[in-house]
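Notes to self after the Tuesday call (sharing in case useful).
The group wants a holo model before anyone commits to mutagenesis around the pocket. I volunteered. Ligand is zinc ion. Logging inputs and output together so the record is complete.
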Amino acid sequence: MPRRNSPATAVVHAADLDGHSVSYRLTRHVGQRRIRMWATPDGLRVTAPRRASGAQIERALRANSRWLRQQIDDWAPAPVPSDGDTIPLGDARLVVRLVGSGRSGLDRAAGVVRLPEGLEGAGRLAALERIYRREARSVFGALCARHGAALGAQPARVRITDPRSRWGSCSSTGTVSLSWRLAMAPSIVASSLCAHEVVHLLVPNHSRAFRDHLERLVPEVAACEAWLSWHGRALLRGPLAAAAAPSLPAAAPADRQPISRSL
Ligand SMILES: [Zn+2]
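Result:
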């Protein structure tokens, strides 16, 4: 009689990845043929064939150590800006000021973001996210309208979202979705993403016709895509990390691999 497949139980192990001890939850599955690994907000997960040895799993982890550590970094909590820190808003750099009371707010003329000092940690990041989302709604909406006018096709709706796997998307019903995190990127990068999604209203794929439209709308699109490949990860790591990313044009740092995210 075949053995019943009991639910797999995750066991916590530790591996040495480039001198860093990283714990991971391992689950073994009957019938699985390859070792799989990915990072989650709760840490590193690994699934393996039932008979894979510990040494085989460690070898697989070490072979992917650089990629895995980048993945783990992406999910780590974003560093929290303190009073006096600089954070980006498009091409501007704003100084964070913690104030005694009142609401969070943006003072563009003074180049300052004010946050109540009682807001700490995740609360402070959430207040900043609300500011970025407000900015994204207004700026990206206008950018999509401008590119749409040049193209002769307007989105039915522009949504501000936060998918971690893509910067933007365009639905078959004409809704353009864009990540609020692009409000931390140089304005030309955000503009190129808005143009990218608006061109999808006319051309659903990435064909030559698509590129022709896109390059006409944003001649710097190749440099913008390169910036996102090299520095997009900083946008996932929050405003402080994004502040360290260079403005355009920038050379790609030699010691990092570009991330791939679909557009
Ligand atoms: Zn696309």
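Two things stood out.
Residues 100 and 110 are 18 Å apart (CA to CA).
The chain has seven helices and eleven strands.
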